[in-house]
Amino acid sequence: MELLKQKIREHGIVVSDTVLKVDSFLNHQLDPELILEIGKEIANRFKNDGVTKVLTIEASGIAVALAAAMELKVPVVFAKKNKPSTLQGQIYSALVHSFTKNEDVTISVSANYLKPSDRVLIIDDFLAMGAASKGLVEIVRQSKARLVGIGIVIEKGFQSGGQELRNQGIRVESLVTVKSLASGQIEFC
Ligand code: G4P
Ligand code: NA
Ligand code: NA
After folding, report:
1. Where, in this chain's numbering, is 5-phospho-alpha-D-ribose 1-diphosphate bound (predicted)?
2. Domains of the chain
């Protein structure tokens, strides 16, 4: 997605050899027009797959998930971090290890919002080690819904998450893949 590459080139900040900061349009401030375009692009890639639900994880996944779900005309469900006391009844949950923060969080989704008849598209902003995506895949598995695939805004190709998920036979579509952040330079695949 050329528009997104341009935005990353202009506004992305290379924090280290492994971390790309995109707070000005995706992770803190949101660029509505770009987010809508991102949503359209992800939706377009899965438009013939009978998606009935988009699944993401709070917080940064929600905006892009909403944009894609608007196009697909299906609801968005976002997994909550650290089981809130308001979540009642049957719950699906998974443990997600954050490599950047070196901590584990439990993510949860109420069984009310994922049914065995659902065809689920997982969406997230970043794919690094894949911990978040793997947690969401586990939640889909518990619900017995069908996983259609995973849509990612920015994949870091030099980290192993994408390959591991694809090796499991999961369809992963990333709008841009960053090949390297070495020496402060953003290189795309
Ligand atoms: P993983 O899910 O692919 O394994 O990644 P990891 O545990 O390393 O990611 C932890 C958090 O950092 C996630 O957000 C993830 O989206 C984000 N992240 C990973 N690599 C990068 C990066 O290079 N740049 C940016 N900007 N974010 C990255 P989170 O903790 O769930 O936070 P949020 O969704 O509330 O923003
Ligand atoms: Na994030
Ligand atoms: Na995220």
Report:
1. 128-132
2. 2-188 (3.40.50.2020)
